[in-house]
Amino acid sequence: MSRVVDLCSFPALVQEFFSRYLAVERNLSRNTILSYRDALKLLLRFLSESERIAPEVLTCSEVLDPTRVRAFLRWLAEERACKASTRNQRLAALKSFARFVATRAPEHLERCPAIRELPRAREEEREVEYLDCDEVTLLVQAPDPSKPAGRRDRALLLLLHNTGARVQEVCDLNVESLRLEELPSVTIRGKGRKVRTCPLWTRTVTALRVLIASRGQPSGKAPLFLNRHGRRLTRSGVSYLLARAARKAGVSKPRHARRATPHVIRHSTAMHLLWVGADLTVIDSWLGHAQISTTHTYVTVDLRQKQEVMAAATLLPELREGVFPPPDVLTWLEKLGDRSRYAESSLPPGGHQGSRRRDST
Hints:
single chain, mainly alpha, hpI Integrase, Chain A
């Protein structure tokens, strides 16, 4: 009889966890919820195979068992060859579920803390992969602007490098996300539903205007980038277009990366901003990092390779001439009417002028 009670409670808790707790109370993004779903699905699949119990009759006591969860993590590593970061992501989802169950089902209160105390796997520090500026130049010049697909690909590649946006963030953009008049910018919705505004360089603005004009001035709600079927471009579609452009440009095997991917472009943006003297807080805000410690990773790479990189790389015009709004808001507002394109004026000697003023206040 007790098993019947557990059978009824576990599906109800799972349903409430996803439909109410994650989606409503925590207001997590769709991708995050799907990631949590995949973690729980994998655990149920593992328990079903190892315990010979059908998923529909598993109970909270069996799912939230520390010994079984440890075995599940080993299964991920050994059978599915998952990296430490993937295992940690799955474990984080299970810890969140255990925390939720503890608040809804007190009878499982003793098991839940044991799940939350399971240690994360140690992740190896990977070398940051990025493209040199001349490689990015070749990449964005690869598409044929005389063809509709080429105009789309050129605008896409320029926007990826300009903003350093995550691939899903670019796929989610609509036409209304752009502001192409005075002080051109794009509004990006990132992880955790955080919204940031990124300035656009002249070359990016020109490519985006050509793209939008070629589509007959679509409505603001229309996706910014479409595939050949007229539907919103997907992450796999962006990766495919980028790989095609890399082959055409002859940068399939970059100097500092295994291959050109959307995330490598994101790393490249951070490195290039660092090389032209952008403040770490500017880069952090530009890329939408959740923690500034992520930005410090690029500083480590820069210090180790600065002599070699600066000797070999030729900066793109937009980067060489780039300067960003100073942290003094009043100064920036006073100059707002004088300079319509603050991101294109000449860089003052020594790089980003605002960082010293910030340190002295």
